[in-house]
Structure formats: C-alpha cells, structure tokens
Amino acid sequence: MKDRIIFFDTTLRDGEQSPGASMNIKEKLLVAEQLESLGVDIIEAGFPISSPGDFESVKSIAKKIKHSSIAGLSRASEKDINACWDAVKCANKPRIHIFLATSDLHIEKKLNKTRPQILDMAVKAVKYAKSFCKDIEFSAEDAGRSDLDFLCKVVEAVIDAGALTVNIPDTVGYTMPAEFGEKIVYIKENVPNINKAVISVHCHNDLGLAVANSLSAIEKGARQIECTINGIGERAGNASLEEIAMAIKVRPHYYNVTHSIKTKEIYKTSRLVSSLTGVAVQVNKAIVGANAFAHESGIHQDGVLKARETYEIMSPEDVGVPESSLVLGKHSGRHAFFNRIKALGYKIDEKTAQDLFEEFKVLADKKKTVFDDDIAAMIEEKTGSTKEYFSLNYQSASSGTATIPTATVRILKKPENAKGKTEIFQEAACGAGPVDATFRAIDKITKMDIKLTSFILKAVSSGVDALGEVTLKAEYKGAIYSGKGISTDIVEASVKAYMQAINKAVNYNVIDKRS
Ligand code: KIV
Ligand code: ZN
Prior knowledge:
Elements: E1 3-4, E2 6-9, H1 25-38, E3 42-46, H2 52-64, E4 69-75, H3 78-88, E5 94-101, H4 104-110, H5 115-130, E6 136-141, H6 148-161, E7 165-170, H7 177-190, E8 198-203, H8 210-219, E9 224-227, H9 241-250, H10 252-255, E10 257-258, H11 266-277, H12 298-306, E11 326-328, H13 334-343, H14 350-366, E12 370-371, H15 372-383, E13 390-398, E14 406-413, E15 423-430, H16 434-446, E16 451-459, E17 468-476, E18 479-487, H17 490-514
Parallel strand pairs: 1-10, 2-3, 2-9, 3-4, 4-5, 5-6, 6-7, 7-8, 8-9
Antiparallel strand pairs: 11-12, 13-14, 14-15, 16-17, 17-18
The structure holds 3-methyl-2-oxobutanoic acid and zinc ion.
C-alpha cells in the first residue's frame, strides 16, 4: 500500500506572521472551514499564548472544526503549554505543537543556554504536554543548521517522552534540496526509535527552495508536510501547500504516495486567503497565479488547441479554476443566481444570499454579463467579516485634464454603544487624482492618522465593463490593515477597500483591545 502524506497547514499561524497578513477571529474561522473542505489533515490554528486574540481564535476554531486535527503552537514552557491546551482541548482531535531551538546559534545567542539544558527542557515539555494530550508534536527549531548528532539525540529523547510527530524545520530556508533530504536519511538511520513517530518537515522559502526541500524530504521518508496556502509566512514564506499537493498528483509514479487534499478546492482556498489577508498572489505563481494556465505564445496556443497535454501538465479544472464562462445577466432570476452560487461551491446563509442577489441586480444593470469571477468577488467581499463603524453613504469625484481632482463623501458613523445615534458626516477635498481626493475627504471625517502603504487595482473578469478590484494596505498605529473593494467604478472600489481597512483598524483598536 502507498504511504500517505499528512498535510499540516500553518496558514493561520506561520502564514499569519507574514507582514500585514493579520486576520480577525471571524476571518480565521472562514479560512479554517475552507481548509477542512480542502482536506487538510491538521490545521495549526495559532499560537495561543501570544495574544488574547490568538487564544480566542484557536479556541473558536477548535470548537467549530470536526474532521481536521487542531494544533496550537507552544514554546517549551509550562505556561505556554497550559494556554495551548486550554485553547485546543475542546477540539475533536487536539494537538499540542511544542518548539525549541536546537542549533548552537539559537541555543547560545538567542536562548543563552547549553545543549544539555535544551535536551532537558525538550523532554520535560513533551512529558508535561503529554499529561494533557495524546497527540504531541515536537519541532527542533533551526534544525536545518543544527548539529546532526545533537539533533538526533533530541529527536530520540522527545520520542521517548511521548512525541508522536517530530518536525525538522528549515527555519531560515538555508538548506539545499539534496542536503535536506540527506538530513532526513541521517535521522532515520541514527535515531533508534524513529519508527515510533512521524517525521515532519517545515521549510521556509528564503532561497526559493521551500517546496523543493519539502519534496526532497518526502522522497527520503518524511510523511508530514507543514505548509501554507499561497506559500505565505514569515519573511519569504513557507512551502506552498498547493504546489506540493499538485506535484504529488501530477507525478504519482515518481513520489508513490497518496494524500487527502481535494485539489479542486485549491483555487477557492487560495482566493479566500489572499482576499482575507490582503496578500496578493503573484501572477506567475505556480498553480494559483493568474497566468498559471494562460498561454500567450501562438505556438503554445496552437499546441494546446490541438492537444492540451502539449503545454499543460495539469488542467485548470484539477485545481478548481472556474472556466470564466458567461453565466448571468440582468434577466437572470433569483433561482439561477442561487444555483450559480452553489455550483461555485460557496455555502451561504439565506439572508446573505438575498442581499447578494440585490447587489447582483445592480451589477447586472451596469454590466451586460456577470461572470463567475464577478460573483466570487462579490461573495468574498460580502462575507468579509469586519464590523462597519464607518460606512459609505455617498461619494462623488471629478477629474480631468484641466481641473483639480475634487471629491465629496458622506459617511455614516455607527455609535459605539446601543444608546448612541448614528452620525452623518460630509466632507470635500482636492488631491493628486480622484482616489487621492476621496481618501483625503474620508481622512478629514475619520480623523485617523492612517497611511496607505500599498494599492493594487485589477480587473476581476474580462471586458471594459469588468468589475475593478482594489486591494490595499494601510498603516495605523504601527499595525497594517488590508482592505478589498469591488465595483465597476474604480473610485468606488477604492473607497470600499479603504473603508474596510479603516473599519478593521477601528475594530482592532476598539473591540480587540476592549476584550
Ligand atoms: O520556522 C519554524 O521553525 C517554525 C517552528 C515554530 C515550527 O515556524
Ligand atoms: Zn516557520
């Protein structure tokens, strides 16, 4: 029988450590549910001791998710392990994931300890965690640069202490694929009790080798892969789940292993993560980039039309890329619209579906044809879960070659408590362009010192009347907030995105700080 690769997804923990990728609890729940639909075996939901918000989101995910295991990260200390267990214990399948550095560099410079102290701490932590939870994973942080014999000693000791999974992270993305594979072989040959545990790997992408290193480890016997959607994560990111899953699917005879990833859910998961984190997917990204299945050269197009396999090693349908088909128009009814939502794989409550239908009608009036991509973008915008303190009531902007761009906005501000009243504000401003002028008018109303740090505008579907999608990031009080907006009018799309980032900042500073 073929060996099975266990997919351990850390989008919600390491992935969320990407600069500016933070998500609120509701957003994390949406991602966790989608990861479960994707068939991920283990969801690392967060690092419970790191903040009350992280603790709460791990706990909510642990309560909600039924099939995937839920892991929480913990340092090798009783305080961390207690918090981690408190957060994951209500999961159907809880896991405590303990990490401790094993490289001399980290041991001496970061932890100010000695190798024997590390060995002792690792064993004590695993034994302590084991008193709560059966499923314990131990990660030897910076294993890629650790002395191999010491690493083997630690691995053997933590397995004896009860760890069922031993993770070998290339924390700083330093190793080369063949070299990393050899480390796995060395561990297998030099840890006497290694067959009592699953060997896992966790590779970072600093040299662009995270996926190559993970695949090399699979060839040599690693059976758990830690990865993230779209490869997001610390610095250059982690190994990308979709690339590893598809490599195994496209080359079954080479790897000779199986996995439970439902590859048709990949594209949707990628979009959801990118939309909620505001981290855009590069266009030429393997598997999920906008150009991953686009054939530009005439020779290639001709080849694909004659026989797809000439230039395609997998089909867009394999990863769930929807055929951008012409589906609905202004005469389409409720039934057709709801069916299309279902066909696209979204599960949406009745009220949201009704609201979306109203929005669809407005869109269909502006735009002759509504594509699947348009519908997906509307759903993602609608199901984003930030409470709206500020909402746009009216906006108009004018610009031209001989006028100074000017904008007027009217914004409603919700009261902070039930007794208060909604306030209405109106302001006008000039700027370098219509978007700039509008943002300046909004800033006059919110009086928040918020600074735009990135702004990306793209068309969601095709045609001059395509929906424009704006993804932006803004900095407020040292933290980055993302926003996304769609509309056939790009100024309106920009305003929606800006308001979403502002509302996230207000949510974080008002709600999260209060709890
Ligand atoms: O990169 C790393 O070493 C980690 C560990 C916590 C597994 O993220
Ligand atoms: Zn990591």
